Amino acid sequence: MWKKIRVTFLLLVLLVVAVNAWRDQNQNWDRPIVVLLHPVNADGQATTEQYIQHLTTEAFASSQQFLQDSSTLYRGKKVYFIYQLGHELKQLPPKIPENAGVLQVMLWSLKFRYYAWQQHTSQDGRPTVTLYLNYYDPEQTTALKHSTALEKGRIAMVNLFASGQQAAQNNIVLTHELLHAFGATDKYELASGQPIYPSGYANPEQEPRYPQHQAEIMGGYIALSATTSKMPESLAQVTLNKPTAIEVGWTK
Ligand SMILES: [Zn+2]
Fold this sequence. Notes:
Blueprint: H1 2-25, E1 33-41, H2 46-53, H3 61-75, E2 81-85, H4 102-119, E3 129-136, E4 148-150, E5 155-161, H5 167-181, E6 215-216, E7 222-223, E8 229-230, E9 238-239, H6 242-248
Parallel strand pairs: 1-2, 1-3, 3-5, 6-9
Antiparallel strand pairs: 4-5, 7-8
Helix pairs in contact: 3-5
The structure holds zinc ion.
Zinc ion binds at residues 176, 180, 186.
C-alpha cells in the first residue's frame, strides 16, 4: 500500500517536471510574453543604486520593439512582449564558476534555479521569463563578465552597465540573453568572439563579404573581416536571422 502511494507520488513529480520542461522548450507565441526584470546592485555602489532607483521600463523599449518587429517578420503577426520592472533584489544571483567543468556548471545551474525560486514572491505574478539584471557602475568596472541564460527554468542573469549612455548596448545584451532563454544558440566562436559564418552574419550574401554593417543578434558582433569584429552600437545595427527564428520557433 505505502509502496504504491510512494511510486504514484514519484511518477506525479516526474510528470510535472516533464510537462514544465516541455512547456519551457515549446513556447506558445500566440500568447503575450511577460518579461520580468529584477535589478540588482551588483557592485554595491551608491551611483549604481541611484541608477536603479530611476530605472523605468522605458529603458528597455528598444529591446521590446526589436522582438516585436522580428517576430512579425517571421510569423506574419507580432508577438506581444510585455516588460515589467520587478522590485530590486538585495541578494546577488550565484556567481558563475570560471573555467568550470560540466559538474560545476550543473551545480551552479541548480543554485541559480534555487535562487530564482527563493526570490520569487506572489506579487511577481507568473512571468514567462525572469531576468536578473546585475548593474555595475562603468566608472568602477570597465569590462563585464559573461551573462548566462537557462532555457529550462526560463531565467537569465544579465550583466549591464548602470548608465543611460550604455542603455542602447545594454538592450543588445539583454535581448541576446532573452533569446537564449527561448532556445536560441550562440553564433560566435566562444574563444575569439568572432561571429560564425554564415549563421552569425547579418548579411552573409553580401558582396564583398566584408565589412558587414550589422550584427546578427546571436552572432553578437559585426564582422569587419574574417578575424576582426566590433560591437554594434544599438539594436538598430542588429538583425534576427532565420536560423535564430527557427530555433525559437517563429518559423520552420
Ligand atoms: Zn550567448
